[in-house]
């Protein structure tokens, strides 16, 4: 509103009398215009839009500031400094107004010239008409003279017509002349006005010249700045191009370098890969060889195990017999003792009971002594271990600054000393120390015996932790064993260090007690650093197999593997290595992550001992160390096998085996073979198999001892019982012992072999080992890294088992003897079958199977063989030849033929299991001269080759010729072998699936086969299907069907829809045809079910029944067809998401969100529950856990466990829409097939059309629909995902805009197009569609503009390459009903003091059902109002002189602001609500011609109300209003010029001019009666906002003189309160002596006294008129 007010601050105006005034604000005017114009200069109102660039220009001036140093001094002098924004704006406004004045002057000149031309043309016409008249008069005279009356009469009529034209032209000339004078007068006035402002125009021209110069300078400065900026930009671009070129060159060089490095790396990798593959192949070959050897050993072991089991059972039976005999003997001795005691008169029972008690006490004492001894050994082992830990702690004391070792565990040390003194007061010898160490090692292996004290518990806990870590870290095995060994050694060294440190440090120092310098946990840049900050290569400094006196050097590389820049400082080496190892290391300074440094370790041994230690370093992250190992030369001896099994051999052969002895150490030694009877106890713990056997035997011996003790205790404890009971108890004990022995006899192989090998007394008599002998090499020298093969020879002489035990002794003290066990068995059978069990696998009945029987001979003579088959199998099995001769020490091959018959289960019930099909037939080979035949077994699984159908007949029932019927049968393979099958010679109307009826059935497999029947002729079908198996067997299946022809036919029975997106639809059209005629009949077989085929032809009813809740719709779904007619059927596929799927997805999203929240809650809870160390007064750190963590988790957990009810998830809710969007975005593909039946009725009888027809199932048609659904490429992401846009109720004529956003969720760009909306539609698409890329969005702007009061609905289609998105547009038009509280007409504000305001309020009421927008317009601000005062000029140039008529827009403010303001200008009224409109009148100068027109217009351009605003302003509080209009109601916007002469100004102040007022009184004269004339004047006092201004007074002067002329004034004087007005009645009665048509005129001053005294000169004019109203 304010901007529009300021658009035209100066206008050109003129009044009706031709006086033109233009308001131009000059400097002199600004000084003398008073407060009103000062406000304009201070406020600087906004510029019109065409001058808005001035603001930008002066903003640039402000930005330039003092930087414009090269400004022209002359121009600066002319401007008087920098021009102000107001001065420039004033210049442009003056120029615009002067141009308007010039334009008006030129228009007046043009009008004057035009009027002159018209006058000239009019005079020329008059002259022409006068000349014609004269000629015509002369012609009349001639005709009169010729007495031609007819011509005279004609000429006279022409003369009359010409005179009339001449008279009208003369009148027009008078009018034009009058207008010309008026226009010349106006042109003169305009010229006068233009001359008044000639000086102002010169000043404006000068200012314009200065402004142009200033603008040119600024343009030059700007161009110079632009050039500088362009040069700087070019320099920057050049530098950037140079930098990019350098970077590109650098990248090319680096890329070339990387390529070269990559090629070298690939070559090296290929080389290493070849080596690795070669090594893997070698390892695989060695592994296969080892597996084969192991398999052979296991076979031999199993064979020897069988013989050992038999021997062991025999020995156990001997032991049981001995035990039984000893028990009987002991019982007999007890009986004799009891009898002798009774004979002596002693209580035998008491005596025997006491004796048993004594034996029990002695046994307990012995057990207690054994326990004490074992505990002493365990305690001694723990003490020795503790000493070792203390020694290690002393070695590491220099690295870890901790308290002294004596302060670590003082109580433990004192307890150890006392315990050692108690256990062994005398010093131990070297042998006892060695035994103690061995016992300590034994005690370390068992953790159950280490629970005797607190120190033992502490150490056991540490051992378990370290063992658990090593176990978890040793589960994975790498490809290269060397790296694995180094890692294991490093881990072992670190574990030992950790154990030593943990036993040394106190609990008060948890930060140092870890002791493992290489295990550092620190967070750097948010990452957790575990392990040492530097990586050593190699990880362990190893000096292996050193010699005293030599020097060894090794290079070590340290790499910074931390995440920060780090440094490395050498602290030193372990204390006990300082004399032997020196390190050459130069500190490299700060190293970035990944950088490396080098050092050299020099080792010069002085003693021949193994040394271990570490090189210690310090870094910024923490200390770390590199382990050092120094090992002397030693022997590492092993054999490839400690058990040699020759297996089964025939007497007379010589077999040898080799045992490989390998020395993996660097020290040579002597060895010798010693054939001792048993193994030495020193080496019992070295080899694992021997230890296992010893432990097993010990367990068995302990069981035997326990059983004997039980038996003895039972015999003693039951001495008071009867002898019969004692014998029963003894028998029970023996039975238990026998069961234990039997259980042990069936135990593992290794236990039995070990027991047999160690239990010498239980052996049966076998060979003394004479058949087994050692080779020639029995002693010798084995050097470092050498291998020697030792030979063992087996030469059996007699059948039986041979054993030999020997061990290998070495000269090296540290190497323990290695025991070797040799076993062999000799047999004397010369003939045997190489394959004693012939397995023919799975065989079928009535099929021939063959195999070879190989017989081997050890004999030295030829032998005759006879193959015998049992009588039961002679029909099924045969061996050819039946007899033969085998040559000495050779083999004989016979052919086995097996042809199983179906009678096998009856013929060989003993050998054949009909349930499982397993056949096991024992066969014999008779050898001439040999009593014992050779046995072998033939095994086979016999199965049938049958294929079986689940039914013998398939009935397809009744089907139409357009229908396909599928029936399934199950085909089962009853065989244990796979069988091929195929359906051959199929009729053309039958199809077998899958795979066209061919396939393979696995054993016992059942396959479902579909038989598809589709016939095109109506008749009965009966046929047989043949299934042929791979064994050339036929299996038949009988089928039958009845085919009928339906009366109706579908044009297409299969509809394949294209891939349709969810939300889109696909439509296809098919036809339903009734091909019946009045003369043909259905060609179907005549039977009881189809008798209706013979009836008369009548209309057929049809009905489609699509599946429920499917995406299929059919139209029409039902109807009737006459013969020969066809019906168009439209099938539509609309894929959609089901509500159940959406609700399930909503629940899934909820549970996923719940799970994420629970994880976040657990993470926060875990963070809160972290221990916060708090330092106590004693310096200890105590962990503190917050107590409120559990309390705060309770409510959150309960809230998270409340899933929503699927019923509560309604469409349109947030959960529902999120789930729907999730399904759309994750939608893959969906394929569904529907079968829609079309039911066809029987014929309707012609005589009874109302009867409901029968529906026959044989006439049913099936429509197959294949419906693939895909993910939509375009989805709606606004409007809650709905494609229906409801504009609701909109007022008629208004336009409502809504936006709909769509997104491309496909992987291809979509080119969007839209359907064409109806041209007469009220809906419109305002923006254009474009191509959107994947993932982009596009907003559609839709508008609804109803024109009638009704409901509208239309469909808009947005098409793309993949889908069509349909949007439903709907809305309702409503006629708005808005009323105004003001009835319209005139809204008069009355008088107001200038620069003050008055307000009036009226109300708009909306009684319609929609919100209605309105806009309030003022005529003065209307954009359609003519600019430049053209409307005022038209008013001034009009001929209307009525004093009551005023223009629509009257006087305006000098400031350019509108005199009338309205609030609000526009808005919206809610349904049933009202809006207050406030109109404010605020003039800035006195005038009584303020007027404007206010129009209230709705948004549909309908007008609610139109009212004329009127108001007057006065500079004083007292005013006089009324009388005649002395001037036009439009005044010039130029204020009256005030002279600059101060004397003239003072005279004007002292002598104020009077204000003229004209009052015309017209008395009415009617029928000689004169009615006095009465006029009213208003005197008012304006209420001001200033409290000092109060009421006023008025006074009429010279009232007596008025009365003389017939005038009377009531009241003549009075007072007026502020805000009120009084009416003064002026009445004129013609006085006596008044002459008619005389005008009585007098002038009376009226004085108004208020804040100032004003004098109004009231001129009274009275006359008598006969036409007055």
Describe this structure as you would to a colleague.
The chain is of the alpha+beta class. A hairpin with a 3-residue loop joins strand 80 and strand 81. The radius of gyration is 65 Å and the shape is elongated. The two termini are 44 Å apart.
List keywords for this structure.
23 helices; 6-stranded mixed sheet; 1669 residues; alpha+beta; 81 strands
Task: Write the topology of this structure.
Elements: H1 2-5, E1 12-14, E2 20-22, H2 27-32, H3 35-43, H4 53-64, H5 73-79, H6 85-146, H7 149-196, H8 198-344, H9 348-395, H10 410-423, H11 430-445, H12 454-473, H13 481-504, E3 521-524, E4 527-530, E5 534-537, E6 541-546, E7 552-560, E8 568-573, E9 581-585, E10 596-603, E11 611-619, E12 624-632, E13 637-639, E14 643-650, E15 655-663, E16 669-674, H14 688-717, H15 723-745, H16 749-758, E17 772-774, E18 779-782, E19 787-794, E20 800-810, E21 818-827, E22 831-833, E23 837-844, E24 849-857, E25 863-868, E26 877-880, E27 883-886, E28 891-898, H17 904-907, E29 912-913, E30 918-927, E31 934-943, E32 947-949, E33 953-960, E34 965-973, E35 979-984, E36 990-993, E37 998-1001, E38 1006-1013, E39 1020-1029, E40 1034-1044, E41 1048-1050, E42 1054-1056, E43 1060-1061, E44 1066-1074, E45 1100-1104, E46 1112-1115, E47 1118-1121, E48 1126-1133, H18 1139-1168, E49 1172-1175, E50 1181-1184, H19 1189-1200, H20 1214-1225, E51 1229-1240, E52 1261-1270, E53 1274-1276, E54 1284-1291, E55 1296-1304, E56 1310-1311, E57 1313-1314, E58 1323-1325, E59 1331-1332, E60 1337-1344, ...
Parallel strand pairs: 6-12, 14-21, 23-31, 33-40, 42-52, 43-52, 54-62, 64-71, 73-81
Antiparallel strand pairs: 1-2, 3-4, 5-7, 7-10, 8-11, 9-10, 11-12, 13-15, 15-19, 16-18, 16-20, 17-19, 20-21, 22-24, 24-28, 25-27, 25-30, 26-28, 29-30, 30-31, 32-34, 34-38, 35-37, 35-39, 36-38, 39-40, 41-44, 44-48, 45-47, 45-51, 46-48, 49-50, 51-52, 53-55, 55-60, 56-59, 57-61, 58-60, 61-62, 63-65, ...
Helix pairs in contact: 6-7, 6-8, 8-15, 8-16, 9-10, 9-11, 9-13, 12-13, 14-15, 14-16, 18-19, 18-20
């Amino acid at each position: 509103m304010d901007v529009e007010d300021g658009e035209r601050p100066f206008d050109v105006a003129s009044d009706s009398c031709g006086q033109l005034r233009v308001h131009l604000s000059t400097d002199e005017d600004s000084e003398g215009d008073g407060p009103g114009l000062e406000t304009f200069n201070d406020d600087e109102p906004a510029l019109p839009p065409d001058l808005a660039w001035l603001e930008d220009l002066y903003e640039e001036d402000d930005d330039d500031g003092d930087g414009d140093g090269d400004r022209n001094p002359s121009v600066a002098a002319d401007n008087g400094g920098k021009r102000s924004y107001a001065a420039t704006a004033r210049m442009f406004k003056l120029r615009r107004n002067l141009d308007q004045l010039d334009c008006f002057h030129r228009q007046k000149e043009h009008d004057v010239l035009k009027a002159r031309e018209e006058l000239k043309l009019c005079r020329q016409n008059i002259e022409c008409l006068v000349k014609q008249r004269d000629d015509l008069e002369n012609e009349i005279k001639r005709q009169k003279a010729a007495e031609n009356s007819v011509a005279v009469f004609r000429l006279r009529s022409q003369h009359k017509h010409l005179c009339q034209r001449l008279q009208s032209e003369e009148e027009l000339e008078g009018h034009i002349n009058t207008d010309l004078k008026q226009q010349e007068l106006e042109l003169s006035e305009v010229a006068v006005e233009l001359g008044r402002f000639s000086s102002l125009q010169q000043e404006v021209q000068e200012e314009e010249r200065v402004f142009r110069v200033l603008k040119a300078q600024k343009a030059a400065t700007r161009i110079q700045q632009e050039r500088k900026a362009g040069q700087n930009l070019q320099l920057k671009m050049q530098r950037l191009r140079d930098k990019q070129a350098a970077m590109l060159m650098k990248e090319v060089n680096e890329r070339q370098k990387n390529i070269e490095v990559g090629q070298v790396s690939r070559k090296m990798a290929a080389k290493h890969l070849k080596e690795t593959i070669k090594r893997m192949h070698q390892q695989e070959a060695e592994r296969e060889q080892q597996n084969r050897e192991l398999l052979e050993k296991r076979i031999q072991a199993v064979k020897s195990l069988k013989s050992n089991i038999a021997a062991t059972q025999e020995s156990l039976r001997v032991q049981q017999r001995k035990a039984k005999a000893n028990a009987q003997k002991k019982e007999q001795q007890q009986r004799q003792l009891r009898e002798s005691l009774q004979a002596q008169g002693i209580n035998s029972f008491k005596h025997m009971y006491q004796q048993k008690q004594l034996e029990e006490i002695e046994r307990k004492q012995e057990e207690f002594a054994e326990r004490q001894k074992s505990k002493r050994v365990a305690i001694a082992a723990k003490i020795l271990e503790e000493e070792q830990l203390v020694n290690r702690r002393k070695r590491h004391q220099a690295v870890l600054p901790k308290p002294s070792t004596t302060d670590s565990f003082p109580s433990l040390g004192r307890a150890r000393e006392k315990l050692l003194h108690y256990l062994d007061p005398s010093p131990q010898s070297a042998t006892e120390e060695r035994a103690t160490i061995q016992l300590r090692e034994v005690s370390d292996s068992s953790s159950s015996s280490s629970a005797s004290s607190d120190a033992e518990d502490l150490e056991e806990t540490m051992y378990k932790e370290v063992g658990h870590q090593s176990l978890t870290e040793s589960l994975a095995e790498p490809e290269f064993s060397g790296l694995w060994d180094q890692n294991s050694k490093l881990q072992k060294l670190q574990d030992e260090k950790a154990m030593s440190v943990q036993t040394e440090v106190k609990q008060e120092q948890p930060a140092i007690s870890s002791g493992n310098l290489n295990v550092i946990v620190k967070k750097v840049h948010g990452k957790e650093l575990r392990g040492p900050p530097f990586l050593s290569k190699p990880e362990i400094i190893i000096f292996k197999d050193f010699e005293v006196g030599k020097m060894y050097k090794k290079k070590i590389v340290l790499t910074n593997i931390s995440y920060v820049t780090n440094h490395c400082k050498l602290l030193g080496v372990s204390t006990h290595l300082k004399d032997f190892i020196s390190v050459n290391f130069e500190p490299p300074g700060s190293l970035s992550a990944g950088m490396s440094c080098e050092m050299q370790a020099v080792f010069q041994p002085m003693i021949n001992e193994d040394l271990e230690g570490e090189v210690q370093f310090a870094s910024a992250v923490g200390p770390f160390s590199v382990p050092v190992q120094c090992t002397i030369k030693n022997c590492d001896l092993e054999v490839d096998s400690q058990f040699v099994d020759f297996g089964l051999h025939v007497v007379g052969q010589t077999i040898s085996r080799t045992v490989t002895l390998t020395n993996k150490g660097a020290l040579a030694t002597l060895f010798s073979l010693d054939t001792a009877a048993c193994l030495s106890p020193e080496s019992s713990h070295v080899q694992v198999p021997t230890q296992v056997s010893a432990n097993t035997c010990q367990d068995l011996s302990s069981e035997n001892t326990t059983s004997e003790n039980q038996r003895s205790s039972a015999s003693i404890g039951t001495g008071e019982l009867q002898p019969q009971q004692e014998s029963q108890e003894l028998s029970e004990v023996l039975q238990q012992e026998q069961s234990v022995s039997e259980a042990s006899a069936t135990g593992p192989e290794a236990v039995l072999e070990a027991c047999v090998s160690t239990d010498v007394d239980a052996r049966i008599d076998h060979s003394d080992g004479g058949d087994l002998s050692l080779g020639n090499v029995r002693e010798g020298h084995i050097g470092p890294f050498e291998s020697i093969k030792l030979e063992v020879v087996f030469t059996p002489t007699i059948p039986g088992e041979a054993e030999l035990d020997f061990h290998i002794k070495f000269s090296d003290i540290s190497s323990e003897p290695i025991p070797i066990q040799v076993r062999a068995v000799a047999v004397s059978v010369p003939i045997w079958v190489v394959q004693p069990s012939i397995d023919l696998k799975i065989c079928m009945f009535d099929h021939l199977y063959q195999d070879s029987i190989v017989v081997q001979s050890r004999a030295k003579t030829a032998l005759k063989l006879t193959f015998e088959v049992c009588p039961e199998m002679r029909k099924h099995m045969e061996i050819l030849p039946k007899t033969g001769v085998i040559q000495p020490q050779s083999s004989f091959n016979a052919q086995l033929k097996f042809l199983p018959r179906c009678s096998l289960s009856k013929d060989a019930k003993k050998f054949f299991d009909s349930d499982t099909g397993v056949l096991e037939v024992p066969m014999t080979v008779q050898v001439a001269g040999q009593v014992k035949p050779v046995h072998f077994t033939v095994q086979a699984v016999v199965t049938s080759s049958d294929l079986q159908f689940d039914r013998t007949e398939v009935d397809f029932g009744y089907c139409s010729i357009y229908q396909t019927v599928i029936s399934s049968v199950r085909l089962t393979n009853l065989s244990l072998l796979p069988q091929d099958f195929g359906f051959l010679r199929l009729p053309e109307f039958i199809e077998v699936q899958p795979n066209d009826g061919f396939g393979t059935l696995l054993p016992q497999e059942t396959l479902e086969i579909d038989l598809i029947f589709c016939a095109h002729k109506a008749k009965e079908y009966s046929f047989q299907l043949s299934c042929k198996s791979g064994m050339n067997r036929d299996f038949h299946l009988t089928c039958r069907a009845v085919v009928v022809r339906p009366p109706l036919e579908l044009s297409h029975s299969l509809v394949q829809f294209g891939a349709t997106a969810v939300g889109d639809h696909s439509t296809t059209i098919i036809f339903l045809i009734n091909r019946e005629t009045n003369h043909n009949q259905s060609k179907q077989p005549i039977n009881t079910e189809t008798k209706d085929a013979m009836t008369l032809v009548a209309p057929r009813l049809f009905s489609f029944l699509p599946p429920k809740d499917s995406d299929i719709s059919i139209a029409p779904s039902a109807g009737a067809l006459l013969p020969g007619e066809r019906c168009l059927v439209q099938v539509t596929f609309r894929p959609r998401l089901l509500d159940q799927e959406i609700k399930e997805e909503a629940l899934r999203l909820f549970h996923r969100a719940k799970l994420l929240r629970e994880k976040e809650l657990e993470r926060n809870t875990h963070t809160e529950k972290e221990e916060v160390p708090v330092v106590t007064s004693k310096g200890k750190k105590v962990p503190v856990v917050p107590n409120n963590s559990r309390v705060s988790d309770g409510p959150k957990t309960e809230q998270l466990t409340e899933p929503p009810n699927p019923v509560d998830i309604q469409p349109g809710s947030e959960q529902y829409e999120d789930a729907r969007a999730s399904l759309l975005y994750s939608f893959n593909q969906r394929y569904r097939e529907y079968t829609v039946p079309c039911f066809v009725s029987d014929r309707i009888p012609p005589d009874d059309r109302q009867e409901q027809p029968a529906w026959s199932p044989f006439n049913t048609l099936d429509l197959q629909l294949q419906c693939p659904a895909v993910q939509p490429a375009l989805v709606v992401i606004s409007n809650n995902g709905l494609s229906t846009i409801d504009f609701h109720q909109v007022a008629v004529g208004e336009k409502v805009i809504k936006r709909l956003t769509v997104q491309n969720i496909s992987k291809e760009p979509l080119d969007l197009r839209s359907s064409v909306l109806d041209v007469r539609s009220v809906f419109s698409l305002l923006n254009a569609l474009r191509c959107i890329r994947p993932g982009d969005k596009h907003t559609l702007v839709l508008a609804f503009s109803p024109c009638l009061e009704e409901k509208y609905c239309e469909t808009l289609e947005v098409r793309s390459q993949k889908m069509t998105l349909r949007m439903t547009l709907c809305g309702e038009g409503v006629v708005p009903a808005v009323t105004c509280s003001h009835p319209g007409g005139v809204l008069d504000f009355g008088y107001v003091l200038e620069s003050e305001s008055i307000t009036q309020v009226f109300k708009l009421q909306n009684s319609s059902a929609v919100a209605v927008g309105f806009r309030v317009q003022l005529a003065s601000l209307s954009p359609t109002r003519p600019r430049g005062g053209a409307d005022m000029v038209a008013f001034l140039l009009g001929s209307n002189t009525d004093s009551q008529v005023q223009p629509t827009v009257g006087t305006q403010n000098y400031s350019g602001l509108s005199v009338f303001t309205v609030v609000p200008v526009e808005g919206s009224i809610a349904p049933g609500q009202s809006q207050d409109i406030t109109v404010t009148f605020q003039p800035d100068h006195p005038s009584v011609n303020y007027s404007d027109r206010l129009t209230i217009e709705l948004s549909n351009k309908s007008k609610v109300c139109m009212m004329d605003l009127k108001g007057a302003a006065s500079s004083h509080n007292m005013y006089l209003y009324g009388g005649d209009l002395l001037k036009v109601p439009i005044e010039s916007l130029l204020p009256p010029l005030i002279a600059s002469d101060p004397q003239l100004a003072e005279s004007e102040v002292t002598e104020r001019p009077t204000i003229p007022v004209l009052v015309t009184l017209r008395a009415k004269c009617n029928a000689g009666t004169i009615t006095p004339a009465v006029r009213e004047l208003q005197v008012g006092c304006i209420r001001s906002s200033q409290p000092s201004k109060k009421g006023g007074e008025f006074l009429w002067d010279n009232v007596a003189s008025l009365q003389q002329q017939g005038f009377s004034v009531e009241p003549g004087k009075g007072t007026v309160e502020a805000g009120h007005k009084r009416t003064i009645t002026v009445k004129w009665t013609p006085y006596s002596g008044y002459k008619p048509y005389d005008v009585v005129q007098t002038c009376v001053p009226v004085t108004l006294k208020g804040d100032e005294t004003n004098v109004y000169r009231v001129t009274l004019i009275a006359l008598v008129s006969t036409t007055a109203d």
